[in-house]
Amino acid sequence: MNPFASQHLALLSRLARIFHSSLNPGIILRLVLVDTVRLLGATSGSVALINSETGLLEIEASVGLSARGRRLKLRIGEGITGWVAFRGEPARVTDVRQDPRYIPARRNIRSELAVPLERSKQSHSGARAEGTQVMGVLNIDSIRLSAFSGVDEELLLTIAGQMSSLIQNAWLYEQARRRANQLDALLKLGQTIMSGETLPDVLHQVARGACRVMKARFCAVLLLDGVGENLKWSATSGEPGTDLIEYSLPVDNSQIGMVVRRKKPATVYDIHKSDPLPFAMLSLHKKLVSLAGVPLLTGERVLGALALYTDRPHRFSNDEIQILSALANQAALAIQRCNLSEKLISTEEELRQSERLSSIGLLAAEVAHEIRNPLTVIKMLTHNLEREMPKDDPRRKDFEVLGRKMEQMNRTVERVLGLARNSEPVFEKTSINSAVEDLMLLTRHKLAHQKVQLKLALQEGLPDALIDRAQIEQALLNIILNSLHAMPRGGNLELRTGMSLRRRNSSGLWVEVRDSGTGMTITQKQNLFQPFLTSRAAGTGLGMAIVDKIIKSHGGEVKVRSRFNRGTAIRIYLQADHAVSLPA
Whole-structure pTM over 0.70, yes or no? Predict the structure, then answer.
């Protein structure tokens, strides 16, 4: 037997034992490479694999190369190694100095032998398809001229075939292991997400879990605003770099917006070339490269999007998009559950408030009824006593004041009874300016006593309003009293009237009460019309709830502007009796 053939058989036998060992694939590749270089009398050797992300040939294992040589990366078609990867054919070069394709990875190399590493093509379903695909190159070099023969080439092709099977199996195993880990992590994350009690907690769990499961640099949950035109950064994980709360992405002009518009996943290989908008003003954007976005869907309704960013070029596989989509589906269900839970809590609170209002209404009606009976008797006796007095008796003035005050008490009792009965307003044409002026006459002494400067800015030529004058005066009085309580050491109070020609497609009057008082906190403003809410040590907290009830019964609305320690402006809108054009 030819001694070379005997050595080749011995090498193949040894390599077969190495290939079937339980060692790490990376170690196996190096062991095989060491024996191959030794037996074929080569000076150095390497296994270069195509990086699916960058498309470059990168050295996976090597023998006899310097650190610089091991870092060498080649494009497909570049160098002899790149040519073999491009053509899928072996290359045996007797003198590399005469070959223009050669790119040195080590000094003094004279000859080179390179063969392709091929794997079977896979269909989209994962089944094996016809044909092969180059995944790398097995390469050996020598400092001798014409160091490798045709027999060596055949042997290296045989070794490359076994290497290819090893690498392909290792890749398949790694993909299966990674997918199993992702599915396990996804299951655990789904349980955590669905157990979240509040929406912010759920959103942050989703963002953190997506980063952990997908090993991403940065993840974000973006929810649509009420109009559906912009996406708000609702939760982030990774390195936000800056506060994202104030930023929003337009649905019609961003890659994430495209995910929402189409209701389908989308990927971007390089956001700096395709979609710089999301991070144009953030320090983080330079660190991020690739993007995968999936919509948050409940049925056909889109809630927003889940976005995932990597810090290196990455082509997202179908498996990764499926994992991310499954996570997004779980997130959408959790978001919907939280929204329904919040609505349920809000409805329960409204029912409790309604019950409290009903109870206080019944109590108020009973108290008012008990007051009205003795008040009627007092009025009758007072009237009789006044009739018996001489006309010049100075006490008559006292009885006149007493009579007015009892009449005022009687009107108050009637209003309480009307509120308890939920009586409908009695509409009549009324000058809103006249009502405001009369109200100022009633409160002028209290304003002066509290050192509050009054300013009236009543627009002339306003049409009459169709209102219940007593109820509107009561509403304005409650607002004014709240303003006075907010200015215990004096201040400025301004009452203004005007007209909105285009409010809800009709003309409408408005009255505004503006003070320079303590203003309201965000919480106080949000709960301003809730019954029994008060910021004072004394008071029932019903004032603004009554205002809201009265204005709504008139088909109007109340608008509030307030800043803590900067004052408050409350404007009520009412329907005018008829549409008019005001003088210029």
Answer: no
DSSP secondary structure of 369-388: HHHHHHHHHHHHHHHHHHHH
**3-state per-residue secondary structure call for 120-134:** EEECCCCCEEEEEEE
**Cα–Cα distance measured from residue 493 to residue 454, given in angstroms and rounded to the nearest whole number:** 5
Give phi and psi for 303, each to the nearest 5. -95, -25
Residue 17 CA, distance from chain mean position: 56
Q: Terminus-to-terminus CA distance in the chain, angstroms? A: 116
Q: What is the DSSP letter of 247?
A: -
Q: Rounded to whole angstroms, how far apart are CA atoms 334 and 340? A: 10
Which residue in 382, 476, 467 sits closest to 428, CA to CA?
Answer: 467
What is the 3-state secondary structure of 335-358? HHHHHHHHHHHHHHHHHHHHHHHH
Place of tokens 């009085």: 477
Q: What does pLDDT average to over the chain?
A: 77
**For residues 95, 97, 103 and 109, what is the CA-based torsion angle, rounded to 10 degrees?**
60
How far apart are the C-alpha atoms of 383 and 200, rounded to whole Å?
Answer: 67
Q: Which single residue is written with the structure tokens 């409204």?
A: 350
If 0-12 CB within 10 Å is exposed, 13-18 middle and 19+ buried, where does residue 105 land? Answer: buried
DSSP helix, strand, coil percent of the chain (3-state; round to 5): 50, 25, 30
Domains, the chain, ordered by start: 3-178 (3.30.450.40), 191-341 (3.30.450.40), 428-575 (3.30.565.10)
Quickly state the pLDDT bin for 269 (edges 50, 70, 90): confident
Q: Burial level of 427, CB count in 10 A (0-12/13-18/19+)? A: middle
Which tens digits make up the pLDDT trace of 277-288?
A: 444 444 455 578
Q: What's 288-329 look like in SS3?
A: CCEEEEEEEEECCEEEEEEEEEECCCCCCCHHHHHHHHHHHH
Contact in structure between 499 and 576 (CB atoms under 8 Å): yes
For the stretch 175-233, pLDDT in tens is: 666 666 666 666 666 665 566 567 777 787 778 877 877 788 888 888 888 777 888 88
Contact (CB, 8 A) for 319 and 180: no
Q: What's the rounded Cα separation, in Å, for the pair 369 and 414?
A: 9
Q: Which of 314, 111, 109 is nearest to 217 (CA)?
A: 314
